[in-house]
Amino acid sequence: MNNNTFLLRLKAFGWSVFGLFFVFVVVIEMNENGMLPQNKAEKSPMSFEMQQVVKPKPKPKPKPKPKRTPPKAHKASNTPKMSSALSGIDTGLESFMDSSLDVDDNLLKDADKNVIMNESSVDEAPKPARRSAMEYPKKAKKMGIKGYVLLNLLVDANGDVSKVKVLESEPAGVFDDVAVEGVKTWKFTPAQYKGKAVKVWAKQKIRFDFQ
Amino acid sequence: MDTLVTFIHQFIAYMNSGGFVMWPLFILVFVLWYGLGYRYHTIQRGTKKSPRVLIRKFASGKREIPKGIIDSAVVDGLGLKAEIADRKMLRKFLDDRFYVYQQTLNQYAKLVKTVVIVAPLIGLLGTVIGMIETFDSLASMSLFSQSGGIAGGISQALFTTQLGLVVAVPGLVMGRLLDKKASKMELDLEQIKDILCSEENLDEI
Questions:
Q1: Tell me, what's the ipTM?
Q2: What are the backbone angles phi and psi of residue A167, rounded to the nearest 5°?
Q3: Mean pLDDT of chain A
Q4: pTM for the complete prediction?
Q5: A13, A31, A35 member nearest B34 (Cβ)
Q6: Distance in angstroms (rounded) separating the CA atoms of residues B70 and B47
Q7: How many CB pairs under 8 A join A and B?
Q8: pLDDT over threshold 70, residue A69
Q9: A180 to each of A111, A143, A151, A187, B14, how far by Cα in Å?
């Protein structure tokens, strides 16, 4: 009888070892992804590649546009102020190109210090001077997703990135956060306009790809 | 062998990520399955035939060696019946003798039930601890620190709940199955008592 109960307890012990294995195998299989230390260690090399969005630069039109044309007194009296209403749009109409509007560079005066320009309006586009590495999003890496993000950056006169907007991304939303966070740490050579550094909106494409 | 080593690594990583609540749960798993295994081996009916048939067989000497609880109860009951001349006292003696069997049937039943209830509660405790950590980190602004922080606190919270549930659910199912088996066998024991007491002459059964 005594021997019998001992055997019984031994069997029960075997069951409890089985139970331990069962429970922990189930649990560990459940969260296979994410918590394994060796998965984190073997980070496969990956790269992202920058690509300046090359835009056929339209050769400087008579710029700046008549933003604040001093309305002449006699015109203002009988015509609606079309010129100011339409100033932002390049309609290509002859009348607005007319020399009678008397547009010259002095119109901007000191405005170019504060005005934010875009890539096509500056003499020299900003170029990335220092790029920091970005981390490939884990999920995308696991699923093998490649893609790109097209960003609009506001590069200030010091060459820092002060604002980032996502213009386009493929696939949508996967790399946006990483790209935005990463690009904020970059340093640019500021854009030049008439020999001075100016603020500028610049486009930057960031590709995410495995190597 | 390699898979075993990686499994142990994963196990340790898992236990660490859940905080100190994981170790009580680990012990509970051990206790729970010990109880379940013990019950599984004790609750063996022996033969599948009904008590009536069994009594006739053992009384007529066709079978000698009892194999399970019901078999040995029948043998015991028949022996008792042969000893006790007073038929009115027989039931009380049988009650006395069969109490041991009932005890074996219910051994560790309470333990299993308790563990099944307690395991998710301990998991919940781990969750609460993890949440406290999360809100601490919100207060101290160390949001993304390696240990603790929002992510750490929440993952700790979820791991403990997960383990608690994974411990409890199989235990609950197994425990229920064994309970059902045990209650059926208790009914069988009652039936054996009734048959032994009521039938004057076993040949007529």
A1: 0.79
A2: -85, -40
A3: 71
A4: 0.54
A5: A13
A6: 8
A7: 80
A8: no
A9: 29, 21, 8, 14, 33
